[in-house]
């Protein structure tokens, strides 16, 4: 559970204790103390945090942030691990003090000595390299890997292809999987203004955790208010990021996310033990408080060119909908009232066997007013969550707040309901994939064959009876690669031999230069007026900001030329928000 230490500058020991108690109530085991080098908050916060942990009985470990203020000196890391690594409240794995990072692959070689002198168990996040290169950066240094890729691309739902890549290259070494509920940031001082699709992310990601069963799950984050993915409480004295980041307004204040923790005891028990018991039914709700059209988008993009992603208007990413999940012991009905206008809801996802977490959403449909979500069974109300209002007049400075409000209500009565099958006894019963893999995975995953390198499992449950085998041997078509092999073999044998992907003649397979599962990048673009030349150059290399350029071609990312030690800035009289990033990229 990532906690940004810099945001605890004004925490007392008691503040730490309260946050740890909240985390314990959610069945979270430890805080990963994300620390930037040289931050004056670090030293006093560590003293308070470990003192609080001793009172509460909580665990902590270090996550050294190499991106915030640059690289950590090796000696400083050794000193901190030597001082705190043997503390009884420092998290140990296999008898060793556990330590992670945010980035820092340029210092990878340091960790050979750090491990030798501290005996730590090292699981870094070197996501900028990808799994294979991260393991090669300093062979033998990582004991496992953590990925920061916890958000989907563009309008897509979250998939598990990056996770699968990590698990493949780790080849039995442990993987720490990221889980996050949201992402929105608008901090010009940090050159950050984008969002990723979080509409159903919190639900989807936990389903993916159950299927992949990683060694650890790290939730991003507890208190990163500037990126809107906090699930811890708000603290009025912890909003420095909005001042330092030159935010137009504080988009976290008043937007509670605590209730994203409400179903974690059930989910974490399911993940850790394979089973969990529901004692109280309830409903969890999240939505943005203003329709998208009510405000300007604040210059926010969906996706970010800072990671060479194709950018979208945010309205193509996030939808004007009320999202809800319900923890239920048996099927129930759901209705949503917005300003007194009632819609009968439905479930897009339901647990196999009827016990577990259901999920769905309804559109705003132009309605405003208080949101009330009610779950009922046979006409009797189980619980009714009375939330905040959807309002067209709450745009601060006329700018859309893409951060959601979250609420939960539980029933007053208790029950006892446990899924019949443990997670280890379940198989995939629904899945998907991109392009030609959509049909292949849709069929095979429904019968329990859902290879993680090719498909995304979206639901688990009891094994379905397999169709009668046909005896047909399926192979990928000419021009395809080995990712299709197992699927064609399975599907053709069971009666769904997709002619667009599979045949009955074995042919030589291709070796792809780009993964079938990587999203496209921009490979050509243009702009108006004196932006034309800048956009033509930068869009070729995947850097095609939507506020300045139009992407005209998509394909595999073309790596830009080696960077030069040249800084570029917007010319006098030109809009720095439009020209600045382009000039910086093209000149460098």
TrEMBL record:
InterPro entries, alphabetized: Glyco_hydro_71 (IPR005197), Mito_struct-func_regulator (IPR051130)
Record-annotated membrane-spanning stretches: none
GO MF, one example: glucan endo-1,3-alpha-glucosidase activity
A Pfam family it matches: Glyco_hydro_71
Protein name per Swiss-Prot or TrEMBL: Alpha-1,3-glucanase/mutanase
Taxonomic source organism: Aspergillus piperis CBS 112811
């Amino acid at each position: 559970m990532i906690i940004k230490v810099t945001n605890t500058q004004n925490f007392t020991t008691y503040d730490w204790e309260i946050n740890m108690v909240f985390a314990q109530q959610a069945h979270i085991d430890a805080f990963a103390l994300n620390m930037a080098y040289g931050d004056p908050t670090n030293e006093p916060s560590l003293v308070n945090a470990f003192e609080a942990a001793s009172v509460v009985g909580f665990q902590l470990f270090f996550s050294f942030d190499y991106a915030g203020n640059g690289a950590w000196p090796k000696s400083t890391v050794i000193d901190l691990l030597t001082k705190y690594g043997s503390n009884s409240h420092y998290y140990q794995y296999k008898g060793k003090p556990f330590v992670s990072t945010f980035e820092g692959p340029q210092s990878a070689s340091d960790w050979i000595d750090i491990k030798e002198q501290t005996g730590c168990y090292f699981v870094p996040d070197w996501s900028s390299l990808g799994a294979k290169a991260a393991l090669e950066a300093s062979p033998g240094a990582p004991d496992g890997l953590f990925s920061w890729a916890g958000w989907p691309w563009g309008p897509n739902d979250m998939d598990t292809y990056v996770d699968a890549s990590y698990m493949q290259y780790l080849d039995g070494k442990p993987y720490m999987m990221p889980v996050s509920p949201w992402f929105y940031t608008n901090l010009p001082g940090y050159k950050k203004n984008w969002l990723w699709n979080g509409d159903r992310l919190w639900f989807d990601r936990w389903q993916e955790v159950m299927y992949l069963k990683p060694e650890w799950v790290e939730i991003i984050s507890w208190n990163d208010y500037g990126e809107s993915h906090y699930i811890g409480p708000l603290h009025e004295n912890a909003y420095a990021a909005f001042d330092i980041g030159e935010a137009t307004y504080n988009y976290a204040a008043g937007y509670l996310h605590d209730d994203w923790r409400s179903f974690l005891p059930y989910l974490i028990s399911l993940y850790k033990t394979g089973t969990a018991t529901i004692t109280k039914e309830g409903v969890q709700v999240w939505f943005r408080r203003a329709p998208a059209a009510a405000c300007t988008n604040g210059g926010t993009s969906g996706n970010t060119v800072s990671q060479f992603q194709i950018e979208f208007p945010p309205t193509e990413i996030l939808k004007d909908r009320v999202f809800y999940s319900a923890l239920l012991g048996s099927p129930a009905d759901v209705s949503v009232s917005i300003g007194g206008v009632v819609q009968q809801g439905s479930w897009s996802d339901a647990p196999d066997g009827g016990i577990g977490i259901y999920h769905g959403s309804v559109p705003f449909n132009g309605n405003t007013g208080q949101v009330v979500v009610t779950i009922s069974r046979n006409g009797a109300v189980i619980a009714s969550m009375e939330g905040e209002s959807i309002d067209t007049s709450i745009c601060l400075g006329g700018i859309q707040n893409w951060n959601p409000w979250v609420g939960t209500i539980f029933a007053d009565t208790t029950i006892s309901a446990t899924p019949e099958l443990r997670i280890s006894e379940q198989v995939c019963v629904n899945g998907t994939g991109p392009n030609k893999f959509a049909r292949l995975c849709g069929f095979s995953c429904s019968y329990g064959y859902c290879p993680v390198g090719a498909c995304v499992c979206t639901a688990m449950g009891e094994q379905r009876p397999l169709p009668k085998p046909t005896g047909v041997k399926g192979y990928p078509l000419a021009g395809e690669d080995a990712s299709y092999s197992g699927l064609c073999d399975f599907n053709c044998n069971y009666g769904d031999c997709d002619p667009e992907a599979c045949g009955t003649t074995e042919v030589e397979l291709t070796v792809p230069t780009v993964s079938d599962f990587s999203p496209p990048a921009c490979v050509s673009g243009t702009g108006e007026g004196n932006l034309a030349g800048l956009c033509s150059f930068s869009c070729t290399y995947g850097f095609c900001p939507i506020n300045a350029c139009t992407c005209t071609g998509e394909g595999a990312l073309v790596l830009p030329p080696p960077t030069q030690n040249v800084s570029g800035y917007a010319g006098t009289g030109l809009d720095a928000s439009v020209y600045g990033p382009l000039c910086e990229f093209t000149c460098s």
